[in-house]
Amino acid sequence: MNAEVMILKGIKYAVLPFEAWEKLQKYLEELQDIADCNEIKARIDRGKGEYFPASVVDALLDGENAIKTFREYRGLTQAELAEKADLSVVMIKKLESGATCGSIKTIKAIASALNLTVDDLI
């Protein structure tokens, strides 16, 4: 890859063709994906995570509500989740519909009730 070096105000810059920049960006994204996968695998290997079926992953990637997706995966009704999280059914419905985001305390309670981390839900 050829790049021209410029110095502006004492700082070196590499100037390269836009096509090369796009290619570099693609490689960086792929490297980040690999790093993310390795981190997830390491968490699972340390017992700090679990595997989910493709249907759950696909639903999350498709933008489905995480609370609803994980609640259904765990086989809970909204009322059962509300009871386990010490919340009202109305709050669960609002969270699942996107009418509210909920406080961090609420999200922590739901994560605990679903045996997940807060990160899994946000």
Brief characterization of the structure:
The protein is mainly alpha-helical and 122 residues long.
Keywords:
122 residues; mainly alpha; 7 helices; 8% strand
The strand order across the widest sheet is 1-2
Give helix % range.
Answer: 55-70%
The stretches of 5 or more residues where confidence is low (pLDDT under 50) are none
Largest sheet: 2 strands, antiparallel
- Rg, nearest Å: 22 Å
CA-based shape:
elongated
Give average pLDDT, whole number. 91
Please write the string of helix (H) and strand (E) elements: EEHHHHHHH
> How many DSSP helices?
7
Number of strands: 2
**Which structural class is indicated by helix and strand composition?**
mainly alpha
The termini sit apart by: 39 Å
Strand content: 5-15%
Describe the structure.
This protein has 122 residues and is mainly alpha-helical. The protein is 61% helix and 8% strand. The chain is built from seven helices and two strands. A two-stranded antiparallel sheet has the order 1-2. Helix 4 (78-85) packs across helix 5 (89-97) and helix 4 (78-85) packs across helix 6. It starts with a strand and ends with a helix. The mean pLDDT is 91.
